[in-house]
Amino acid sequence: MRKILNTAHIYMIVGLVSGLYYRELTKAKNFTGDTQLAVVHTHVLALGMLFFLIVLALEKLFTLTSVRLFAWFFWTYNAGLALTVVMMTLHGTLTVLGHSSGEAISGAAGLGHILLTVGLVLFFITLSKRIPSVSRTGGDTAASRLPLASSAEDR
Length: 155
Hints:
Layout: H1 2-28, H2 37-62, H3 69-96, H4 103-130
Region (Disordered): 134-155
Keywords: Membrane, Transmembrane, Transmembrane helix
Pfam families: DUF2871
């Protein structure tokens, strides 16, 4: 659990620093246009800090780390987010400095998004392995207490 908390903490720091970087760089260069630097701050805070705080709560409830796929999710997702954020920062910085970014930056950002997607799929597989499935035949579950849908004949 400490690793998940530390990860969220690191993303909080990176998110706040990226917001400061955006503000100071655009102010220093008198830049007023659109740049990807404007959204790096929120991406890091939402996809990094907030996401891992949610993972921390789910770990407490379901011990996700006991599933071997958790490590694959953790490292794949973090690699994807790091690559995506670095490419967004590079692209945004080049925009502020008046340079164009090349195809390599777009390709690397695309790879980052693919890794994020694979990481999310692994996360949901991990989560599904730890949440018990509902049995239709046994036990008193919330689903078994729901009223049956009425048919047209019953109306």
